[in-house]
# Entry
Amino acid sequence: MTITTPEFVARLARAQSAMAAAGLGALLLSTEADLRYFTGFLTRFWESPTRPWYLVVPAKGDPIAVIPSIGAALMGKTWIRDIRTWVSPDLNDDGVSLLIATLQEVGGDIGMPFGLESHARMPLAALAQVQAAVTMRSDQGIVAGLRAVKSADEIAKITKSCAIAGRAFARVGEIAGQGVPLSRVFRNFQRLCLEEGADWVPYLAGGVGRLGYDDVISPATDAPLQTGEVLMLDTGLIRDGYFCDFDRNYVVGAPDPLAEEGYACLLAATDAGRKAAQVGAMAADVFHAMADVIAHGPSVAGTDPGRLGHGLGMQLTEGMSLIPTDRTTLVAGMVITLEPGITLPGGGYLVHEDNFVISADGAVQISPPAWPQLQRI
Amino acid sequence: MTITTPEFVARLARAQSAMAAAGLGALLLSTEADLRYFTGFLTRFWESPTRPWYLVVPAKGDPIAVIPSIGAALMGKTWIRDIRTWVSPDLNDDGVSLLIATLQEVGGDIGMPFGLESHARMPLAALAQVQAAVTMRSDQGIVAGLRAVKSADEIAKITKSCAIAGRAFARVGEIAGQGVPLSRVFRNFQRLCLEEGADWVPYLAGGVGRLGYDDVISPATDAPLQTGEVLMLDTGLIRDGYFCDFDRNYVVGAPDPLAEEGYACLLAATDAGRKAAQVGAMAADVFHAMADVIAHGPSVAGTDPGRLGHGLGMQLTEGMSLIPTDRTTLVAGMVITLEPGITLPGGGYLVHEDNFVISADGAVQISPPAWPQLQRI
# Structure
């Protein structure tokens, strides 16, 4: 189930339509997800920071790949036909002249992603050379806007990743329990994800505590799990180039009643978010629907609920943020996470997360059903 | 075995000495490895592209973290004491004002990594705002230069990662053989890496073919391994924040004699590279020592041997390239890969890779000994 050439052609057509409206001669793209969106070029080689990779999407005609020769064979397997290469790394001219010549051949103003979540994956020295040679300006969010609305094939891929993670989460009782170091749980959970079909596991976070966790981004320590502690695991695994991003909460033995109450509140907030996530609603509306439930739960007064979800797809997080200021309008085909969190009195943070597709019939959950109570392990 | 505060203080002192020579008021850093080098801030949360993270290293005084509030707890566990946060994502001002105020408070010209392998992990719109507010110029390679020479603790960590991968490579017979799809081999090899102690497995590549492989960056297909085929697996796994990066070659049943001959040539080239990798030699010298052996092997005449190795450490690839034009001088404490490749007549590419520390007594291999012939599976 690979993204088909007609879908790439349709993506290009939508981009070119938006570029015409913006008066752009071409888009210049440099990051993994942006290149892959228009080409299908999928490789883990991006882990190496050494080589830059460029794609020029002209206002008319097909995309032009300007890439290191080491990638020519793989790019040749995609639908891209105009592939221009140099032998990289080149300490004097690492593709910059070839890129500038290509941009000048295409002509017109060059749009690059300028906004939140974007960056130019190229040396600043090279960027300055390009900016001196052509007129570069913001793509006005064209690429992010296109990527935010998923096709049926993309939704199927994300759903498959969700199912894989769901099967791994269902097996956590095999690997976690009283006395097991968290670092071992992390290693073994990634193993479960691979056994269940993940291609790789780019992201795993977690937290432990009786009444929630201190922090949700720290690496695992060797501290053993204790009876009564809540364990949260949050994974973004990849299958066929698409992420899931959701978590599950467990408890070692019997939970503190307040933790169970907090968890119930998060499920209720998720449900309120799902109901609010209608076509035509704004990201902020979904935030408020969830924040209202959390405010009436066992939360510390005055807590900043933070971001309560976001888009996902080719990246772990992309597109809208569920915050009070995000006025992005939901349209059918968007895929989002609902990720309510609560700070418990005398405790830490508790977070629940599920994944949903926005459809004309409302938000449809694509992560497997969450368990109604903290899962005993 | 964590990097200690005295080591961070020493890194800072070396940076400040170089900054004084370059006339810089501060360094502005934005990427995972650069921030971690000066702080010890280790998290997989960088997988999310949403939030920028900044570190300001002033010419005098301690580093200042300018980061999203979600990272404050974890940064607070490092030796960094001046931690300035904002609630991110902020659609109007995602930390830019706070960053500019901090840079102006520190004063002087601001150096950022500008050269090969670097990029600014921040939106171009934010970069333009910073460039309008302060004088920004190249850091003249200060950060890359510091990172290239490893401490004893860093070398111990890389060596540990090498040992973990070595144990996983030794078990490939358990998971690969005639008829097994390559995609399953990839999944299970990552599982072995985790079982042997990897924290996570950011990189896995491979190739299959009777006389070498077409390509070394493509994802695995479901094609089953066939008798007589060579299988190469190349992993960059992480333990305690440090990579190894080496490969191993196997053969399903008995190899083609030419493949075996090619493999022997690569081992000889690696040995020649090891002998050439003396303190005071240049990267180019090591390249030529290896390329000469390859030219006398069973290689296709006129083949461009490409890059024959590189530095490694906190990133899969970093620092020097073993190419004819890289005049980097080897100093004790550098960690490099030797990665000779050969194109076999009538076949594809064959590559071998091992990891070495440069020392006063010569290059010391830190990946486990390679097997003398293609390993039968």
Q: What stands out?
A: The CA atoms of residues 73 and 301 of chain B lie 58 Å apart. The two ends of chain B are 36 Å apart (CA to CA). Chain B has ten helices and 17 strands.
